[in-house]
Amino acid sequence: MDNGQGQQSNRWEGYIDWRNRSAIKGRHGGMVAASFILVVEVLENLAYLANASNLVLYLSRFMHFSPSRSANIVTNFMGTAFLLALLGGFLSDAYFTMYCIYLISATTEFLGLVILTVQAHIPSLKPPVCPLVNRNVACEEVDRGKAIMLFAGLYLVALGVGGIKGSLPPHGAEQFDEKTPHGRKQRSSFFNYYVFSLSCGALIAVTFVVWIEDNKGWQWGFGISTATILISIPIFLLGSATYRIKIPTGSPITTIFKVLAASIYHSWVSRNSSNAISNFSTCSLYTTEASEDGEYPKGKAKTQTLTEDLKYLDRALMTTAGPPWLECTIRQVQEVKSVLKILPIFMSTIMLNCCLAQLSTFSVQQAATMNTKVGSLRIPPASLPVFPVLFIMILVPVYNHVIIPLSQKVAHTEIGITHLQQIGIGLVLSIVAMAVAALVEMKRKRVAIQSGLVDSTETLPITFLWVSMQYVLLGSADLFSLAGMMDFFFTEATSSMKSLATALSWVSLAMGYYLSSVLVALVNHITGTFQHTPWLHASNINQYHLEKFYWLLCLLSGLNFLHYLFWAQRYRYGSSGHDNQKEIQIVNN
């Protein structure tokens, strides 16, 4: 019996290996397993960003969409890719393992890239070449059939990217034991180095691959992305023997709707009944005071806590007569509370990602009109992200090994800089970035006017390094906000919803890109109504009022930061809210 208990305690409860056997402590999980995931993310982000960062130029120069239409297509594509991370996270939590979702998604992205490569390689699948003598002359836009092929490839890539983003980060985070301080520290380091891996892939994408696309042809750029995502699959499989794979626990969406429905139903019943019974149901799974091996000492009480916030949801536990399918457990109520609590924080990060969307659209088009030479070397406009990427690659090790340990000593806490503080730093940097972007655009426009080149195709006599400042600031904002969001959402969610909650980091990006598209359309509609021409509508970006748009984003970002402060100051971390919890003890007989 002792031997059997020893074998049981040596297993990771709720985890399996890739062969569907119990995961073993010391053999599965840890930094070695997470390292495979970090390497895979380098390749995956290389494949994705190699095209996304330069896609706006491909659409405008080779598919002959207008600059604003190209910008909207890119933001919609990238927004959809990140929004689909929610689907990947949901399927990982509910039905499939994160391991399987990654393999399916990588294959899907590969198929989409094959379609795009074929179209870029065969001239008959693109619109006729249009030599641009004057930027004000419109070229023949891609026809319906060829556009269908283009969008089919793009959105297959988006589906694959979404599945990977929704499954790979939580799969990496699940390799660490969150019950120990060492495991939690390693998990936070993993999220920081996950951003580092994103940057490594981005560095290769916006330098080497973008140069290939601009100088050798887009078929080569798409081809490199196709080969890269294909190579990432066997590398991921090489780590199979080291992974601990979380067992899906059923649909978290079902739990959310069930608790909400039960709360509404019991609230309605209690208002219409003078003798409603309001005892809490205590027939559930409770695990808050278990030892590290997951076992409870004989005779000890299990304790499940019910937080004081969102008390309306506590009504779901009332034992008034009702349909059996509305019966909820304390764990289910807590799971729903954990998700609803983080939604205001999630909503506050969307504006930051709307600002980030400009780096893939208008900022690239700005740089394309400027002098992109550094000495004798010409830098492609889409390679501008190299500045924030390099900065992030330097900042991540410094942040993880210097700033975090120092903040832990100063604050005398395990985490040092809190997740909400990280996100707040990112929001402040985004405000500064948009102010700088507006000032730089004012300078660029002034140079165009003074040089008499507003309607010309000639390069403006101003270096594109001016635009790099907004890239560095927004890149830094992305580091703090993305790493903070992923760690925050993963930590605060319950075990059955971690993939879904972590996917909110990418959904925030998606909503930011969609918001960018909506703002562009809304600004054009309003300004076109009251002025002769809209701010952001012309065949030549020199005729745009882009500086006014950037000032608008700066103002909205400032208001959004005040909104964030309102919720962040009131947020109580799930792991530290013991003073505001009521304990319900169920004696283990």
Descriptive overview:
This is Protein NRT1/PTR FAMILY 4.6. The chain is mostly helical and 589 residues long. Helices cover 63% and strands 6% of the residues. The chain has helices at 2-9, 31-52, 55-61, 67-83, 85-94, 98-121, 144-173, 181-215, 218-238, 252-271, 330-348, 350-357, 362-368, 386-411, 419-451, 465-492, 498-502, 504-530, 546-568, and strands at residues 11-16, 22-24, 245-246, 301-307, 370-371, 373-374, 377-378, 460-463, 581-587. The protein has a three-stranded antiparallel beta sheet with strand order 2-1-3. The radius of gyration is 26 Å and the shape is globular.
Question: Which helices and strands occur, and which strands form pairs?
Answer:
Elements: H1 2-9, E1 11-16, E2 22-24, H2 31-52, H3 55-61, H4 67-83, H5 85-94, H6 98-121, H7 144-173, H8 181-215, H9 218-238, E3 245-246, H10 252-271, E4 301-307, H11 330-348, H12 350-357, H13 362-368, E5 370-371, E6 373-374, E7 377-378, H14 386-411, H15 419-451, E8 460-463, H16 465-492, H17 498-502, H18 504-530, H19 546-568, E9 581-587
Parallel strand pairs: 5-8
Antiparallel strand pairs: 1-2, 1-3, 4-9, 6-7
